[in-house]
Design brief:
By secondary structure, the protein is mostly helical. The protein is built from 6 helices and 2 strands; from the N terminus they run αββααααα. It has a two-stranded antiparallel ribbon. A hairpin with a 2-residue loop joins β1 and β2.
Length: 148
């Protein structure tokens, strides 16, 4: 199990409202209000000074996360995930006619096909985004055909 999976598994989830943000000599102090029914018991039992890794997501009135992730940012993430997939690496080996043995080689080949130096260019390069969408769709069709 990697660190991210472990963190998700042991995470305490609750809704909170920002009450105050102040500053001390050690940094910022974020004060949150948590409804009594939402406070995780381990948080109540923890000693003052216990360290936590935090991830906060702003919620809209309909309890849905706010924030706009651009199409390019979604594609950057998708390209990174795909390059880690052994099935996508095999697919890339077939279309490039080069043996792709790992994530790094797959990423290099994908960037070459997309004609970009870095995945971050997917944010601003519409042509590369279109080419990536085509590759992803062709890969998905290939997988459907392969798996019957």
């Amino acid at each position: 199990m990697n660190e991210a999976d472990h963190a998700r598994q042991v995470a305490m989830n609750f809704e909170a409202v920002k009450v105050r943000l102040t500053q001390s000599k050690d940094g910022y102090i974020l004060q949150l209000s948590i409804h009594p029914n939402e406070v995780p018991e381990p948080l109540l039992r923890a000693w003052v000074g216990t360290r936590y890794m935090c991830a906060l997501v702003e919620l809209a009135d309909d309890n849905q996360p706010t924030g706009d992730v651009s199409e390019g940012e979604r594609m950057i993430k998708s390209a990174g995930i795909l390059c880690q997939s052994p099935e996508f690496q095999d697919y890339m080996s077939q279309i490039t006619q080069d043996f792709i043995a790992d994530t790094k080689q797959c990423a290099i080949s994908l960037r070459a096909i997309l004609k970009i130096e870095s995945r971050t260019e997917l944010k601003t390069n519409a042509e590369a985004r279109n080419r990536f969408q085509e590759i992803r769709q062709q890969f998905e069709a290939f997988e459907r055909q392969k798996n019957g």
